[in-house]
Amino acid sequence: MKTIAQVTGSAHVGNLYVNRNMVGAVVGVQPFGGEGLSGTGPKAGGPLYLYRLLAHRPPNALNTTLTRQDARYPVDAQLKTTLLAPLTALTQWAADRPALQTLCRQFADLAQAGTQRLLPGPTGERNTWTLLPRERVLCLADDEQDALTQLAAVSRRRQSGAMVRRRLPPRSGETSPRRRRGACPVCESGNADGAAV
Q1: Within a 13 Å sphere around the CA of 96, how many CA atoms are in the beta-carbon half?
Q2: pLDDT at 197 over 50
Q3: Domain of 1, in residue numbers
Q4: Which of 16, 61, 85, 126 has its CA 20 to 30 A from that of 166?
Q5: Which among 113, 135, 132 has a CA at the least distance from the CA of 196?
Q6: SS3 at position 100
Q7: Model's pTM, two decimal places?
Q8: Where is this region: Disordered (predicted)?
């Protein structure tokens, strides 16, 4: 069991099988794809898969689906709490910016990265599904409000990013919380090629 825990805790793969047949997958029970060589995007067969195939959907459809599933099966949100720490810091920092603080709270309510969900499965199997953040995100901002909005979006998943300042005031990158500045460095648009994305 120690070896299994060590491997599963350190592997960054789209699918991880322990003592299970690796051929084929049952939709909604054994999702596949979604990371690394498995591709990016929705996990095929996962609870959010169908919604990615629709042209339109109600704004709260994803949360409704996940809430319904969470009422039936256990959820592990320990990693989610850790991933939300930068967004929590930004929310506190934005005490004198009510619009940004409201946006941060909305992002926190919608955030799913780091939540591990147990899926229904055949007897003897334990299938879990977890959303993980992308490693790097490029942010392009024309003004300070855009920059802070994008910083909040990046923070909700504890991603690292590079903010390319196109027409921002010279010191705009310095107004963000010190804790987040290191994770989202600011560079001029002429130097965007040097951004770590």
Answers
A1: 3
A2: no
A3: 1-72
A4: 85
A5: 135
A6: helix
A7: 0.63
A8: 159-197
